[in-house]
Structure formats: C-alpha cells, structure tokens
Amino acid sequence: MANFSKSNVPQFSVEVYQNEFLPEGGREVNAIVTVTSTGGGTTGGVPLPGTAPSAADAPGRAADAAVVLMVDCSGSMDYPPTKMRNARDATAAAVDTLREGTRFAVVAGTHVAKDVYPGNGRLAVADAGTKAQAKEALRRLSAGGGTAIGSWLRLADRLLGAADAGIRHGILLTDGRNEHEAPEDLRAALDACAGRFTCDARGVGTDWDVKEVTSVASALLGTADIVADPSHLAADFTRMMENAMGKEVADVALRLWTPVGVEIRFVKQVAPTVEDLTGRRTEASPRAGDYPTGSWGDESRDYHVCVRVPEAGIGREMLAARASLILPDPTGAAAPQVLSQGLVRAVWTDDMVASTSINPQVAHYTGQAELAQVIQQGLDARKSGDFDGATAKLGRAVQLASASGNEETAKLLSKVVDVVDAATGTVRLKAKVAEADEMTLETRSTKTVRVKK
C-alpha cells in the first residue's frame, strides 16, 4: 500500500488484493484495487502542482467549486401539477445546501435550454442574497415544451467551462423521454461533456427512460436514481448537493502502467457501483494509460483490473501492472502529481493449492458484476416476452444477491419475482409488477456491496 499526503490535498491510499500465483502456462491476472480518499482539509479542489494555496483554498471555503442545476420544465411536468411544484421545491432545497462561495446556475430544460438564474451565460456566487434570488427565479418556473436533454448538458458545459473551477458538477432532473432530439444528439452531447464535469441524474415518476438517465450518469461519472414519488425530491436533492459539496479534488485518473507483453483485458469500477472504464482509456505514454475516476471527497472505491501476461516457467515472477492515482496539471506546465500507487504481481508456481485459490475480493466483485448484468438481461427478457429467459436470469440474480449479502438488491428483486429458494436461484415471475418497482430495480442494478472482511 502506498499513499500521498499534502496540505490542501486529500490523502489517497491504494491497496491491491489479488492471488498473484499462476500455474504453469497461466496468463490471466486479476486484482481488486481499493482506492481510499480521506481528509483534505478543504472544500473546493486543490492548488495546482507547484503553486501555493490561495485564500480561496482555506478550510470552509468552496470558491473552487461550480454547480449547475438542470430542471425539467417540459409540459409533462404539469401532470400532476404537484410534480412541477415538487421540482421547484427540491431545487430550492439544493440551492440552500450550497456552500458560501460556490458558483452556481439554474437551467430550465425543455426542447431548448435556458439559464434562468443568474442568466446571460454567467454563474452566481452563493451567499444569502444570491440564494434568495435563485429561489425567487425558481418560483417563476412553469411547465411547457418538449425534452432535449443534450441541449441542457451542453449549456451546463458552457457555464461550468467559463467558471474555470476545480470541481465542476451538474444535477439533472427529468420526468420524461428525450423525444425532441435524436439519440445520436444526446450521445454526442455526452461525448462532448465527458471529462469536463460530473453529473448526477434523477428520473421522477415513471414516464422516463431508465437507459437514457443512467447513460447520463455513466458517461459523466455521476449517480443515477429514481424518485418515484415527487414529494421525496427535496430530500434526494439535498443529499445530492451535500455529496457534491463534499468533493475536494477533481479529474483524478487511475493510471495503469504495464510491461512489454502485458495486455489489459478490462478495468471496471466495482464499488460502490459497477462501471466499465475499459473503453475510456487515454494514452499517457507508450506503456501507460489513464482511466477517469471523476471527483473525490472522503470515500472509498474498488476497481477490478484484469491483465494478460506472457507465459513463463515455474519459479518466475514479474510485475504485471502498476496502478497509480494521478492528478494532472490542467495547465500542462507541470508533471502530474502521483497521489498513490500499488503493484499487481504475477508468480508462477507448481503449488496447485496456491495457484487455484481465488482471492475473496476478486470472487466477490466478479459476482457483483455478473449480478448487475443478469438483472439487466432478465428485465430485458421480461419486456420482450421471453419469460423463461427472464426467470432464469432473475433467478441467477437472486442467487448472487443472496450469496454476496446484497440485501438491498435482494429486496428489489423480491418485488419482481417470488423467491422459492434463494440459495439455488429458484424463482417465479410475478404476474403483476408495479412499474416503479421494475424501474427501481433496473436503475439500481449496478449498485454493489463491499466484500465481507
């Protein structure tokens, strides 16, 4: 385990869990890389490498953070009328949660995007006066028009980009499907915004598309969830904003260096949610690539790294990969800070017990990743009328959730299937399932539990 500590920067540590022993001819190495960030002493980013902390970096200040709240104001938000009122109240609660000094804006989203506060392409600085003005602007919001989420994200990107803030975050609320722009337009907007800011996305009610909302959170390294009852929005928005205000450092990358002949098969975040990062690699050097991890506060996350090494004889050993946490210098003038690092090893042995043992962390998260996959496959099969396939996949999900102690997912599954025997995965599909229950299971399918120590 290695760690890095510096004034105004959270302390990062990396721990690697693996069975490094391979049999003769063995080539696949799996490791769980646990990254933990604790106590930076600031609330708004870190000084650039080689620079001194400014007054804005003093404890209790959030001058290096910027947040844009995107509120769905399409016509469907008026059905029932309480939905729009709940959305206004929730956004007001989030505004109240902003720390003094945070820069922020409110965007009203329909088939076009409009920055309703403070307006004119600017961000306000949070204090008692600007918060009151923002809440007054929220009271004037009304429902009408269509839904074009890509345009909301592009406006948020322009606002956040102009702020030159260390922590750049969006919160997006929608109640409907993205019907007023083509799917490729939303995809292009997500591609354009990826790496520029993080974004939490929420679907309210049950008339929105789960895959659209989760695609926003996935691309922008945020969270996605359902708020089936609009009256619960204010509490959810307050929690989201509190979490955003807790972020202390942004743009951290997981850098993997591998020796010649080693191939990276995949890199996945596996806790607190499953997120495949393999395709998001950017080359850092001929033997190293960076995988984005987004913004960090006081938290811990787990990553599953799988590499393929060259064949070697009994008794040989090698460094299979070096995992480092990297904080780049956004100006490009200085070398990136190495916040922490850990090593993934490969050792060839003729000890069959050693080489066939599966590390408990690797086994656990392999199961959690499969759990997320079979839930999605089972729900898709159910929607398409393949009830045998749905029963098999959701039964496997029940089995995995039970074995891993993922009680929350097991509870959600029990609303979609009748569990006959959790240990064997024997289930029956329920004849009637509430739409909110099915959407909740799908939206939260990627949430995992940590491995039991």
What amount of the residues lies in strands? 25-35%
Find the structural class using helix and strand composition.
alpha+beta
Number of helices: 11
Give me the Rg, rounded: 23 Å
Q: Residue share in helices? A: 25-40%
Features:
453 residues; alpha+beta; 6-stranded antiparallel sheet; disordered N terminus
Question: How would you portray this structure in words?
Answer:
With 453 residues, the protein is an alpha+beta fold. It contains eleven helices and 21 strands. It has helices at residues 82-97, 128-139, 149-163, 183-193, 210-219, 233-245, 352-356, 360-384, 387-404, 407-413, 435-443, and strands spanning 2-6, 9-18, 21-22, 28-38, 65-72, 103-109, 113-117, 124-125, 167-174, 198-204, 224-227, 249-257, 263-271, 275-276, 282-285, 288-296, 299-308, 317-327, 337-348, 417-421, 426-429. β20 and β21 form a beta hairpin. The radius of gyration is 23 Å and the shape is globular.
In short:
This protein is of the alpha+beta class. 31% of the residues lie in helices and 32% in strands.
How would the blueprint of this fold be written?
Blueprint: E1 2-6, E2 9-18, E3 21-22, E4 28-38, E5 65-72, H1 82-97, E6 103-109, E7 113-117, E8 124-125, H2 128-139, H3 149-163, E9 167-174, H4 183-193, E10 198-204, H5 210-219, E11 224-227, H6 233-245, E12 249-257, E13 263-271, E14 275-276, E15 282-285, E16 288-296, E17 299-308, E18 317-327, E19 337-348, H7 352-356, H8 360-384, H9 387-404, H10 407-413, E20 417-421, E21 426-429, H11 435-443
Parallel strand pairs: 3-19, 5-6, 5-9, 9-10, 10-11
Antiparallel strand pairs: 1-2, 2-4, 4-17, 6-7, 6-8, 12-16, 12-18, 13-14, 13-17, 15-16, 18-19, 20-21
